[in-house]
């Protein structure tokens, strides 16, 4: 083979090799093309082995052309390899792309139970007046639940609280949140502004307006010079905050053994707005809580001198308040945990 023929063949191989490299569709095809031309048995490698058979004076020239072709093909291979990697990366990014405009999946969120929500609303109103929440035990002793509250063992008022006793002597499930008054008076010193929300229990037949388990919120204020006028002003604010500014309110005489005098606090019926309807027994009024000035005996039982300090207390049924706020007619619904009911209070 002479120099001219060999150069022509090499140029053809260069052209074939560059075509094969340029059209390699993926890294495997590129490897195959590289092997076919530049590998140990590749076409260019084989051809250049023939240099040794050229006349001696032609060998350097052919060697230089051979190197130039080899380098050109190698450069084309690395460039194609970079392009293929770039294309693969772009394809992967496209496959993994996130459409940030896709609407999200809604997370199923729970809601506050209407009783918990009502307690929070009550706490919030009295919190504005400096009342602080305390919690007492649900299993209470007879002395604190009854006797300290001026309800002796043989007092007829005990009929008001049909009691669930527990297997510990002289202990019971608290029938009201009022024993918390004694605990707060004994644990703190006046001035006292305490709010006592909690679960209470009575041995009672269950119907639309009675449960054997229910919630109360008790309030207690003790300070020098505390008066019934303070109590009235506070409860009027409370009635307006929960049932609307301008709603009619009134106080009636009431009776509780642990307050003297005692009052019942009414707001204008939330159903008929005072004109009289079946919901309010055609009176136009709904009683929302009982209250009164703390009986001196109870203050003394709490370790407070009734000659120096006066106090008032109030207590309300949370279910009743929640029923009035939300127009619910059966308090059993609050305890049944039926989501169709509870989800209405979003
Ligand atoms: Zn009414």
CATH class of the largest domain: Alpha Beta
What gross morphology would you assign?
A: rod-shaped
The CATH architecture assignment of the largest domain turns out to be 2-Layer Sandwich
Strand content: 15-25%
Q: DSSP helix count? A: 11
User: Which percent bin holds the helix content?
Assistant: 40-55%
What is the number of strand segments? Answer: 9
Q: State the low-pLDDT regions, or none.
A: none
The average pLDDT is 90
Q: And the CATH topology of the largest domain?
A: BirA Bifunctional Protein, domain 2
The H-and-E topology, N to C, reads as HHHHHEEHEHEEHEEEHEHH
- Calculate Rg over CA atoms: 45 Å
Largest sheet geometry = 7 strands, mixed
- CATH homologous superfamily label of the largest domain: Bira Bifunctional Protein, Domain 2
Please state the oligomeric state of the protein chains shown: single chain
In what order do the strands lie side by side in the largest sheet? 1-4-5-9-8-7-6
Provide the number of structural domains: 2
């Amino acid at each position: 083979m002479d120099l001219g023929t060999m150069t022509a063949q090499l140029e053809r191989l260069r052209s074939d090799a560059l075509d094969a490299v340029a059209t390699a569709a993926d890294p495997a095809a590129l490897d195959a093309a590289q092997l076919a031309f530049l590998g140990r048995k590749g076409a260019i490698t084989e051809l250049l082995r023939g240099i040794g058979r050229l006349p001696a004076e032609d060998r350097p020239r052919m060697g230089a052309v051979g190197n130039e072709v080899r380098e050109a093909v190698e450069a084309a291979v690395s460039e194609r390899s970079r392009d293929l990697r770039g294309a693969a990366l772009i394809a992967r990014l496209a496959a993994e792309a996130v459409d940030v405009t896709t609407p999200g999946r809604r997370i199923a969120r729970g809601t506050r139970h209407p009783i918990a929500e009502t307690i929070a609303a009550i706490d919030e109103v009295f919190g504005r007046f400096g009342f602080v929440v305390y919690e007492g035990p649900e299993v209470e002793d007879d002395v604190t639940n009854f006797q300290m509250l001026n309800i002796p063992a043989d007092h007829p008022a005990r009929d008001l609280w049909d009691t669930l006793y527990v297997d510990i002597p002289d202990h019971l499930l608290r029938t009201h949140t009022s024993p918390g008054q004694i605990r707060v008076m004994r644990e703190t010193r006046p001035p006292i502004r305490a709010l006592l929300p909690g679960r209470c229990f009575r041995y009672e037949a269950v119907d639309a307006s009675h449960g054997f388990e229910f919630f109360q919120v008790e309030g207690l204020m003790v300070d020098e010079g505390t008066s019934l006028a303070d109590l009235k002003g506070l409860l009027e604010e409370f009635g307006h905050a929960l049932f609307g500014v301008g709603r009619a309110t009134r106080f009636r005489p009431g009776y509780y053994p642990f307050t003297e005098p005692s009052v019942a606090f009414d707001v204008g019926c939330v159903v008929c707005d005072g004109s009289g309807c079946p919901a309010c027994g055609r009176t136009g009024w709904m009683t929302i809580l009982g209250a009164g000035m703390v009986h001196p005996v109870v203050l003394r039982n709490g370790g407070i001198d009734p000659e120096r300090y006066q106090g008032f207390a109030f207590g309300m049924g949370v279910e009743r308040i929640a029923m009035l706020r939300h127009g619910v007619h059966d308090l059993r619904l609050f305890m049944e945990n039926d989501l169709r009911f509870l989800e209405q209070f979003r």
